[in-house]
Amino acid sequence: MAKCLAITRGGQPCRGSVRPGNDYCPAHDPTRAQARKRSASKAGKAKNPRSELGQAKRRIKDLVEDVIEGNIDRGKASIAFQGLGVLCRFIEVERKIKEQEELEARLEALERAQESEGGNRRWG
Q1: Is the N end or the C end of the chain the one with fewer CB atoms within 10 Å?
Q2: pTM to 2 decimal places
């Protein structure tokens, strides 16, 4: 498979693969610039689970320190840890839902592209 002709920000040749009849991978294809811009805009507006996980991680570290130093009751800290555990599980569920939605959107786009190429071929 052919490689992308673009040069990365680091000055290295892109190692992305290109589709037949194209010189650039989807990440560098000039005809996809608007689509990349829309995706980046959506990503910027989306709630960042990494940020939430970072906050939970900081809170856990603070609670551990407070328990060790005797600044917080162990029972209260235990309840807080349980709540943080539930929060982390919800963040994971949100991540899985988002991932599923993104995969569905990509599959629909591939199916539309296949239909627009005039093919009724099945995948495989």
Answers
A1: C
A2: 0.46
